[in-house]
Design goal:
about 375 residues, alpha/beta, Rossmann fold, 2 domains, eight-stranded mixed beta sheet, six-stranded parallel beta sheet
């Protein structure tokens, strides 16, 4: 099959759950014998890069603005598909914002099967204003009602679509490869980090990820361990500055910036525990990566985190700094619980979030898609955008 992936910033992934998801999926689809093309943005992937591990890359422009970057790139990608891509079997949209334009492919490439993956309720993210949130809700409606097949990455999202739109969709989670853990600390010595000497979080520095709660809780601890925060802002410079001011001159709070590859692997491999204080998620790939690295995980008690880690995780009340600090102290004092969480986390990743099974399930969705039953409107939809 000729498969086109659209909506991601680019690959190889430098950060971002959607980009990691698309990279893992695209590379495995190529290995399965398919012709795969992914669109990239020049502000994320070098425009001169034309192929990555067998995946064809097409760089197209975008308007580098918080509200316009994704949608402008998606529009140009749709035009490229309509006018330049001769034989296409599948166009797979990722995220509800880009999915708002999938109707262009439905109308102008009626023989092409269109798939949409619903990664998260992006409109809940605090960086968006009223207009952007409204548009993202429109994108959600389109993804759930106008694609041949809709995929959700969590059971919570699947249930949400069923309740709101009266539609059955396919649940296929994010995955994570079991990593080769490294004892080496060559890359992280620049921050004077030693094995199990730090709490770790990896996240975009945007408000709904709750990094401010984590910093506030950490400052209440009496510990020699450090707090390491990996990630950059995403059109959120004021929030990044707020975090740095909150950290102040505390030498044990370390911002590494965005990391990938060997450095990120070393950060995961040598951490004491992983913490996510996020207020909203789809299905956190960073959380899955932490469990795959056999780290104990402490996360906010939102449904998506509980679904991901179940009894392998330790939970604190969402947005509650005092409870987060208390649970961090439990990690510091309960050695047996930490050991138990490490084992359970790895077992859960292997059982529920294996990429080989995920790719097989995605291919089944591709093959089951039926473009003969397109309705201009889903009359059963109960959505109120």
């Amino acid at each position: 099959m000729k498969i086109i992936l659209i909506g991601q910033k680019g690959i190889p992934a430098k950060g971002g759950g959607v980009e990691r998801h698309v990279e893992e999926l695209a590379v495995r689809l190529v290995k399965a014998g398919h012709d795969v093309l992914a669109y990239t943005r020049p502000n994320y992937t070098d425009a001169s890069l034309k192929e990555y591990k067998g995946v064809k890359l097409v760089s197209l422009p975008s308007i580098s603005h918080k509200n316009l970057d994704a949608i402008s790139h998606t529009f140009f990608a749709c035009l490229n598909i309509i006018f330049k891509q001769k034989k296409v079997d599948i166009v797979h949209f990722h995220s509800i914002g880009p999915s708002s334009l999938l109707w262009l492919i439905r109308i102008f490439k009626p023989r092409v099967k269109v798939i949409a993956t619903f990664h998260s309720k992006c409109y809940e993210h605090q960086k968006w204003g009223l207009l952007a949130r409204t548009y993202l809700k429109v994108g959600e409606f389109v993804a759930c009602n106008f694609a041949h097949k809709t995929i959700t990455v969590s059971k919570n999202l699947k249930n949400y679509v069923k309740e709101k739109y009266g539609k059955e969709v396919d649940y296929i989670p994010n995955g994570v490869p079991v990593p080769v853990k490294v004892e080496s600390r060559n890359e992280i010595r620049k921050w004077n980090l030693e094995k199990e000497s730090y709490f770790f979080t990896a996240s975009r520095l945007v408000r709904h990820k709750g990094i401010h709660y984590l910093i506030q809780a950490f400052k209440q601890l009496k510990t020699n361990k450090k707090l390491v925060i990996a990630g950059d802002g995403a059109y959120t410079d004021s929030y990044v500055e707020e975090l740095r001011e909150l950290a102040g001159d505390n030498p044990n709070i370390i911002f590494t910036g965005n990391q990938s590859g060997n450095t990120l692997n070393e950060l995961f491999s040598n951490a004491y525990a992983f913490i996510s204080a996020s207020e909203s998620e789809g299905l956190s790939i960073a959380l899955l990566e932490a469990m795959a690295h056999e780290l104990p995980v402490l996360v906010s008690d939102i449904p998506e985190n509980i679904e991901a880690s179940e009894d392998a995780g330790l939970y604190f009340e969402n947005k509650n700094v005092l409870d987060l600090a208390d649970k961090m102290n439990i990690l510091l004092s309960c050695e047996e619980k930490v050991k138990e969480m490490k084992v359970k986390g790895l077992e859960r990743v292997k059982k529920e979030y294996d990429w080989e099974n995920i790719v097989d399930n995605v291919l089944s969705v591709y093959k089951d898609s039926d473009n003969k039953n397109f309705q201009v409107f889903n009359l059963k939809a109960k959505a109120r955008v």
